[in-house]
Amino acid sequence: MTATPPPLRFGVATSAYQVEGAVDVGGRGRSIWDTFCALPGTVLDGSDGSVACDHYHRLDEDLDLIASAALSSYRFSIAWPRVQPDGRTLEPRGLDFYDRLVDGCLARGLQPFPTLYHWDLPQALQDEGGWPARETAHRFADYTTAVAERLGDRVSTWTTHNEPWCTAFLGHASATFAPGLRGAAFPVAHHTLLSHALSAQALRAAVPGAEVGIVLNLTLVHGEPDADPRAVDLVDAVQNRLWLDALLDGRYPDVLPELADPALVQPGDLELVHGSLDWLGLNYYTPFRVGSPVTTADGVGQDSDAFPGAPDFGFHPRPPVTTMGWEVDPSGLEDLLVQLSRRAPSLPLRVTENGSAYADEQRAEDGSVDDADREAYLLGHVAATLRARDRGADVRDYLAWSLLDNFEWAQGYTQKFGLVEIEPETLRRIPKRSFRALAGIARAAAQ
Ligand code: FCB
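# beta-D-fucopyranose complex -> structure
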């Protein structure tokens, strides 16, 4: 007889630069996103994360909000430039903030779920070469040790990187994300994976029993009838297999010759990466449909530049789509979870992000956002996660993106993913209908 799996746990996710604000407080150093946002034309509405949701100053209020929804966990990220403003020297006030965050979670019965890197590299390390330089992987391991030594007595489940595909390909191929470079995606992909492995070692050394994961934005890649099969294969290789083959099999896909360079991938690197995971996090928003090239006014998420080596192609999302232009397909989440569980049967899985951007034009009588569309997206994807569990996938958590409307990277504040609205002038938090829906799901699951 097989044991009944523990119930799926529910939580919410944010990331430091998208919500914290307070960029000049507590000795925080500059990050590559501060620099990138200041360049003309990089962020759609010319905004930045300098105030964002002011989560840094409203921490208790936000933790109360999460706890009010009967959630189990809070996924947040640690801003490296708060902890090591120059990428090396420790700033104790930075760690004090995350210490309070962790204690605040525990006091409210929430599991703290930190991510060490959600894209905000200290600018000082960028100036020394950034992720294209191998040395940055060693700096990341040192930073990991500093954080783990401070928080490891209370935090057991750790995430190294969030979506290293974005760091590598949006940051260093299509130039749509910080640091806005081109031509360096493959070295960065390898160095982020190497840094993940070194960070996993550092975590295990500092925190007995640490459970180490990485968060990937894997997706299902479908070829449209008019697609060039080489483009479909390369998109899948870059988006999915590069990461999974390295982590699960200790090799890179043959179709990516850039990763066969022994000067880049040095002896022993892939042995370190292979088997470095205790669990795997999946951020899922949409499937990819690859077909003939299309011309888009707005390149984000639609840019074949982010897939170096692929013949020209376009993405062809099918309706319904969100305001990001991303196709809504809950069955893609179910299929992906089942595929992953078959490929790595003993690896626990977590849905570490899932959510939707909508215009939020409907208001309820009390003035709050009546986001039936976001609620439907949420319910559909939670149901898909539960179906994947019924089909044998060991999925432990479902974490909704995001607690708050926040700074959506190159889209600035034009895209709203929050379950809670932020009133622009006052930064007052106003829960939307979707927030109450998640609370209802969490309460039912906990019974
Ligand atoms: C993911 C990011 C997250 C957020 C969502 C919408 O790729 O991890 O920070 O921007 O997309």
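# post-check
The chain has one domain: 9-446.
The pocket of beta-D-fucopyranose is lined by residues 15, 18, 162-163, 166, 217, 283, 353, 401, 408-409, 417 (CB under 6 Å).
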